[in-house]
Amino acid sequence: MSEVLSNPDVLIIGGGPAGLTAAVYARRAGLSVAVLEKEAMPGGQMATTPEIENMPGILMTDGFTLSTQMAEQAKRLGAEIISGAVTELCLEPERLGAVAGGRAFEPKTVILAMGARRRRLGIPGEDRLSGRGVSWCAVCDGNFFRGKAAAVIGGGNTALEDALHLASLGCSVTLLHRRDGFRGSPALLERVREEPRIRVMTPYLPVSIEGETVVTGLSVSHAVTGETAMLPVSAVFVCAGTVANTELLERWLPLGAEGRVEAGEDCGTGIPGVYAAGDIRKKPLYQIVTAAADGAVAATRAAGFISAANAK
């Protein structure tokens, strides 16, 4: 580890809803808090969500607004939010530490809240045309394709939300899913089916993304018959699930499916003073509200750990 520059009571790695909520609860418990966020703006996947209508007490908002408000709340309570990816991590019992943004930290406790990223399809053309019509974020890139034909691949809430967002931009949207049934919210699916600018194709699989310098089409095949078709589109938005951002943890913790941490409802990881919260923790539901709940639990547990250590 590098020279120690900071010794917070709680070091939170990740500034999404889990990390920001943990910061609020830790500060309310009177603990010093540093939040490490690799992106320039906190919020994680939440920051790119076009519409949020399932947060209790909030009728409707968007991810950018909610992320900004949560970060501001944490800052007003005294949490330090630092931009910079973690390059070193030590989770040895009684020797916790991390390095990020040129600063080294030796905290009393660590809350792991690195979130998840969208999964890639692994089909021809996806990597080559990334940023040239292939995207994993309709909120980020949809405006570049306003009024054009676009394809959305996936069957969860993100795919349904992205299809609706693109339709609101005047896009002619084809929503492609490998199964007949969707795992997303029935309410969202009803809105999708009622939107005249969205065509639903099931059960179809993406085969390849076509184009020399920009996306010009998406080759697809029927999941049962194998019949192929070419969709003339200018953009392909991939919503094929998520993978936890836990590469730094492989040395320290056992990881389950999709790289998620096997931690209980108390968010404990088995390493004293180390907790896992949000989308990196294996659980039955991945939502902003459940990530925030994890953050509150993890921070409360961290405060109890420090209190017990001080009483010895």
N-to-C series of helices and strands: EHEHEEEEEEEHEHEHEEEEEEEH
* Tally of contiguous helical segments: 6
Radius of gyration: 21 Å
- Low-pLDDT runs of 5+ residues are 1-5
**Envelope shape:** elongated
Instruction: Determine the strand fraction and express it as a percent band.
Output: 25-35%
Note the main sheet.
5 strands, parallel
Description:
24% of the residues lie in helices and 25% in strands. The chain contains 6 helices and 18 strands. It has helices at 17-28, 63-76, 138-141, 157-168, 186-194, 288-311, and strands spanning 10-13, 33-37, 80-83, 86-92, 95-100, 103-105, 109-112, 116-118, 134-135, 149-153, 172-176, 198-201, 204-210, 217-222, 228-231, 235-238, 242-244, 274-276. Strands 3-2-1-7-18 form a 5-stranded parallel sheet, with helices on one face. A 5-stranded parallel sheet has the order 9-16-10-11-12. Helix 1 runs parallel beside helix 2 (63-76), helix 1 packs parallel to helix 6 and helix 4 (157-168) packs parallel to helix 5. Residues 1-5 have low confidence and may be disordered.
Task: Looking at this protein, list some descriptive labels.
alpha/beta; 5-stranded parallel sheet; single chain; 312 residues; elongated; disordered N terminus
Provide a brief overview of the structure.
With 312 residues, the protein is of the alpha/beta class. Helices cover 24% and strands 25% of the residues.
